Amino acid sequence: MAPTAAVATPPPEKSRRRRARPRRLPYLLIAPAGLLMLGFIAYPVLSVFSYSLQHYNVTKPWRNGFAGLDNFRRVFTEDDQFWPTLAFSAQWVFTQVTLQLLLGLALALIVNQTFIGRGISRAMVFSPWAVSGVLTSTIWILLYNSSTGFSRYLADAGIGEYGTSVLSDTGTVFWAATVTELWRGVPFFAILILADLQSVSKELYEAASVDGAGRLRQFFHITLPHLRDAIILATLLRGVWEFNNVDLLYTLTGGGPAGETTTLPLYVANTGIEGHDFGYASALTTVAFVILLFCSIVYLRLSKFGGDRT
Amino acid sequence: MTALLTERNGTAPRSTAPGSPPSARRRRPGRERAFDDVPRWQIYLPLGLYLLFTLVPFYWMLLFAVRPAGSTSLAPWPMTGAHFSKVWNERSFAVFFQNSMIVGVATLVATTLVALAGGYALARFDFRIKGAFMLALLCSQFIPGALMLVPLFEIFRNLQMINSLGSVVIAETVFQLPLSIILISGFIKNVPVSLEEAAWVDGCSRFTAFRTVVLPLLRPGLIAVGSFAFVHSWNHFLFALMFLSEQDKQTIPVGLNTLIGADSVDLGALAAGGVIAAVPVVVVFAFIQKWLITGFSAGAVKG
């Protein structure tokens, strides 16, 4: 479809009045969005870049001033928290995106079938999508707490021990947080994939089953190629989102125990907000941004997004 | 959606068999056979397990919210409203609820209007900075809101908007805009331009044609985008935490965080606060979840 070409051609005489300012109209229409984004996204981004080259600490005003690349040198050579938090971020994003994709895909395929109770099942399994990070933390803190949580009832039944809290044990906290994030993350993938499944041509399945292809072969030769672009885009967006989002870990574990679950953005937030070291936090932000952009480009290249489809 | 598909087929006939539009709604004998030979247990068993995983946490929260303090019963009776009246009155959730509503509705209206204008421009015009604008929209998806807190705080401080709900509305709207514009321009592209041209020929102005012809067809898409904006701003935590320090200006997620961070967590009150936070989004979600699938499948994901 080429609507723009159709509009670009000069209109008939009759519609002259409305077309008096056709050149200005698109600019007027994007002006509100453009100005908001310039003022509240572009300008803050530029100030982050500029702060990253300065010493800027509210609590140590006598040191404030141009710093050159000093903050960046500190990030890579002196900071003993940068690499561990970056590594944890990578582990967190990879685990979340992989598991959310696999579970979300399975869930979408199931609720795409025709069965009794499909509408209500869809509504129920998708519902955690609408729940916030703080509320998710709230719910799972109730489940995980050691005195009246799930473990107590398991202990009553003779499984495990009383008084264990999975959130304060370094051995279990990763999986406890992972399950919590999966609970609200899987519906996102399931919704997107289910939406894309609606546009698979039914004729393809018919032809395949006439040719004797089983359900497994239909999945790998029809469904999966069709979903390719949607999956690439969804995993990328979700990966970026999981990297950036701090709501859940901030409220569920606070980055603990012993810094075990501190992601890079959470570390940055702590440095900037609680430590008031804006210059250094901005340098960390810049580094995080570059890493994210680099990984995204590599991912799009490797996955050949938008490439030839079957 | 169905009208949309029919319309599109009417204007641009596809090379499918005559009389069989590729609508997912149409029931065809072949389709039943291809899909319905899945054994029932292969649907109900995994679905049942996943439903347990989804619903038990919700039930757990409800249970704690209505169960008297100290009870360890797994059934929600005897029931008490004590926790609710405590968080609603003593913990100011009445105020938080009102603030969250204001922020949510204002963000919804602002996002939808601004994104409609921008989306229309992208879908229907060719102009010089179009490519740059699209690129800016996509790039902004990579900018972590959490890491923008400090500069945004300074901007709102200079505008004297700290402790005003307006700061949160602006921040939420701005970060909601890029995705909303991309989605809406996708929806508008799906409406054949010939419909609008027909209205122009009939003497409608561009705006009237848009309002009477295009807007009604955008309903599912707008519902999806608007509810996105509402749910996100209702849920979002960091902006409110940073920009609103006075207690009577705070929103529900900040209130919940305060309950979590209390020295000795009152689980009953926390659960009741959670239920209050969940009710509006669950209601919105129950209404929109059908539109969500159609909204997305209208080519939105692929732009």
UniProtKB/TrEMBL annotation, chain A:
It is a multi-pass membrane protein. Belongs to the binding-protein-dependent transport system permease family. The keyword Oxidoreductase does not apply. This is ABC transporter permease protein. It comes from the Bacteria. Residues 86-299 form the ABC transmembrane type-1 domain. One of its GO terms (cellular component) is plasma membrane. Its main location: membrane. One of its GO terms (biological process) is transmembrane transport. The chain crosses the membrane at residues 25-46, 92-111, 123-143, 278-300. Gene3D superfamilies: MetI-like. It is found in: Cell membrane. Keywords: Cell membrane, Membrane, Transmembrane, Transmembrane helix, Transport. Pfam families: BPD_transp_1 (PF00528). InterPro entries: MetI-like (IPR000515), MetI-like_sf (IPR035906).
TrEMBL record, chain B:
SUPFAM superfamilies: MetI-like. InterPro entries: BP-dep_ABC_trans_perm, MetI-like, MetI-like_sf. One of its GO terms (cellular component) is plasma membrane. Pfam families: BPD_transp_1. The keyword Membrane applies. Residues 1-31 are annotated as: Disordered. Residues 97-288 form the ABC transmembrane type-1 domain. It comes from the Bacteria. Keywords: Cell membrane, Membrane, Transmembrane, Transmembrane helix, Transport. The chain crosses the membrane at residues 43-66, 101-123, 129-153, 165-188, 265-288. It is a multi-pass membrane protein. One of its GO terms (biological process) is transmembrane transport. It is found in: Cell membrane. Belongs to the binding-protein-dependent transport system permease family. PANTHER family: INNER MEMBRANE ABC TRANSPORTER PERMEASE PROTEIN YCJP (PTHR32243:SF18), MALTOSE TRANSPORT SYSTEM PERMEASE-RELATED (PTHR32243). This is ABC transporter permease protein. It comes from Streptomyces griseus subsp. griseus (strain JCM 4626 / CBS 651.72 / NBRC 13350 / KCC S-0626 / ISP 5235).
